[in-house]
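Provenance

Sequences were taken from public entries as deposited. Structures were produced by running a predictor on each sequence independently, with no templates supplied. The record for RmlD substrate binding domain protein from Thalassovita mediterranea is shown for reference.
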Amino acid sequence: MTKTLLSFGHGYSAAALADLLVPLGWRVIGTTRKAEKCDALRAAGVEPVLWDEDLSDYIATASHLLISAGPNAEGDPVLNRYASQIAERADQYEWAGYLSTTGVYGDHQGGWVDEDTPLSPSTKRGQLRVEAEAAWQALPDLPLHIFRLAGIYGPGRGPFAKVRNGTARRIIKEGQVFSRIHVEDIAQILLASINRPNPGAIYNMCDNDPAPPEDVIAHAAELLNLPVPEAVDYETAEMTPMARSFYAESKRVRNDRIRDELGVTLKYPDYRSGLAALLAAETSAQ
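Predicted structure for RmlD substrate binding domain protein:
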C-alpha cells in the first residue's frame, strides 16, 4: 500500500523531507497558499493543493501528516479548519509530525535546555507555538510527534549572499548564542521518526555546536576569502523588530534524544561543516 504524506504548509523543511520520500515511492501532497508555487512542487514530485481548496479528501486518504504551517493570533490554521476531521480519523494515521521551534523555551542566558525544560517563551511568536503544540497534543489518539527546530539554514539560506554583496553584519551582543540546524538534517530526522514512530515524543532539532551568530558570519567570509564584516553593537544596530526579536533569547539546545532514540548521525554536526558543504555545492553548480 502506497504511503501518503499530507504536508500542511509545504515549505522549505517539508520539501527536504519530500526529496527523501518521493524516491521511496511515497505519495506526497503539499498545500500552498500561492498558485505560482504549484509548478515547482510538481517538478519535485509533490502533488500541489491550494490551501483554500477543500482538503477533506486528502485528510481521508493520508497515512501520515506533517504540519509546518505556523500559528497566528487566531490559532493554528490547520486545526481551525480541520480539527474535527483529523480527530475523527486519528487512528488511521501511522505518524503525525508538528514542526515547532526552540523559541518555546524562552531565554536561558546562554544556558542549556533539553526537551524536558519547562516552556517559558519570551516572545509572542514563542507563546503562539506553545499554544499550538498544546492544541495538537489535545487531539485524542493522534500519533503526534513534536519537533522543536533551531535556526534553519541550507541551500538558498546561507550567509554567503549577504557576505558577497556587503550587507552582512556581525551583530555583537555579549553572551549571545544560537543553535542551528541544516535542512538536510531536519529531513533525515523526520524520516528516522517516521520509520520509528513514538507517539507523544518531542525532539529538539539542532546541531552539536551552539555558537555566537557573529562567528558564523566571520567563518563564511573566511571561506569566501573576503573581509570579515564589521562588528556592530546590538544596542545601536539598525534592525527590524523581527530581527531584533531573535536576539531576545540566548540558549544552547541539547539534541541527545535524536541520537539516542532515533539513531541519527547528523550530516552537518556544526556550522563549519554545513557552510563548507553549501559553498562546495554552490561552486559545483556554477
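Residues 271-285 form the longest helix (15 residues).
The domain at 4-152+181-207+254-268 is CATH 3.40.50.720 (Rossmann fold).
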